[in-house]
Amino acid sequence: MSKSSLTRKDSLAAPTNAAGFCVCDESRAAHFFSAGWRMLCALTMVVVLSPFPAGAANPELRETVYPTSIRITPERQRAAAEHGVGAWIWTTNFADKQICRVWKSFSLPSTNRIKSAILNITADNLYRLYLDGREIGEGGNWRSLTQYDITYLLVDAGQHVLAVEALNDSMEGGILLGVRIQFMDGQEMNVLSDETWRVVPNNEKRWYRKTRPSPAWPKARIVGVVGQDPWWLHPVSTIPTPPLRLPDLRFWQSGWFLASILAICAVALALSLRLTAKLALQTRAQELLETERARIARDIHDDLGAALTELVLHGEVAQTEFPGDSREGMRFRELCDRARSASHALDEVVWAVNSKRDTLRDFSSYLCKYAQAFLASTQIRCRLDVKPNMPSSVFDLPVRRGLLLAVKEALNNAAKHSNASEVYVRIHPKDDEVVVVIEDNGTGFDPDTLPGDRNGLLNMAERLADLGGVCSVSSTPGAGCRVEFRMPLAHPSSRSPFTFRRFLPKRKTKPGVDLGSVPAEHRHQLSG
Q1: pTM to 2 decimals?
Q2: Are residues 159 and 289 in the same domain?
Q3: Which of 361, 425, 427 is nearest to 395 (CA)?
């Protein structure tokens, strides 16, 4: 770009014809041709024989020339005031493809509100404009003046920072800027481009967000005034822009909300890590516990079970040495029966301790076998109602142990007191719990005739209530008895800490029996 050629005119230009060539006679043309040829030869000799001057290795870089060529005239002052700008400023030198950064801070009083703030700017050739660390505009036509309305950006009193980054494509470069601020009381404040601006080195990072200049930043230099060649006295056009406003942030875009979300995420992450570590420790402890339970069950079965079996065999051998009706024979027979009972009880303990049996399927299978074996010695027929393909859900040891004892108590009561011909054992899973029903077709009972010292039903209810279960009993004289046990598959203390149910308030209930269809006036006798 050659800006000088756009504004400078040759005042000694010879008259030209329509084709643009000079009009002159033949002798005058020959004289000028001869003189020009001799001058061209002389200049060629000087260039060839003379050494290169210092700095000629970089012909694009040259120092700014002052001060005689800069002349401030009243006309130029009026033009600058009219357009609300200062002087053309730049760094210490010009160069092709050169970047220049300038910075300035100014303060607004807190006692006077702003009425309007207009910023006019242009640069030779390109610029990018920043205000208080935000980019608010850019442009690339040095013949025009761009006008920014920054009233809403200066509503806060105190210090503000203007920064401009400009690019000079070739030859002269400059930045021309001015801010005209009007206050409510009629006063006016101007921030113009002059020598008070600071030039920022190109290697400075985040320089447009600095609130204080570095001592190493040199002052800007005035390289021209309005109307000075090669720049304009009046711009080709003034380009206004819409009023600039700060973006309207929603509450979820505000700093406090983002900080709150970040804090919540940090707390959630910390809790997750803590719960994960706790879960890992619990898992490891559970694995060790299951291993130890398997070892204990194996040792009991192999050592104590073998010892009881050997005791029974010795007792049966000893019986053969005495007559069957003798006192010694009866004692050995009683001893063998007790040893067998202890062996059966030991098998039950081994089943309960063995961690491989902690499933609902194994529990239902064991309970069915026990009910059939228990009722086989009586006149009562055992009928089973079990859901096919029972799921192998985990069934905690304390829960299945307590439920087994309660069912045994119910079967024992049916065998001793019901006078029934059939007993139904029903096992059905429901969601995360299991329902076991013991129902007979016996004589039933009248709550008014129950002795006050009978605590069987109360013991069953208390045992299940401690494990989070419910025991319901319904009986009518002549219509049999129905005992329903409803138990969770997991013990209340071993439920997952991640379930929502853990945070719900626990319902405090007094352990007792849900008597179902028993009349209300008789229920106090069963629970008392």
Answers
A1: 0.45
A2: no
A3: 361
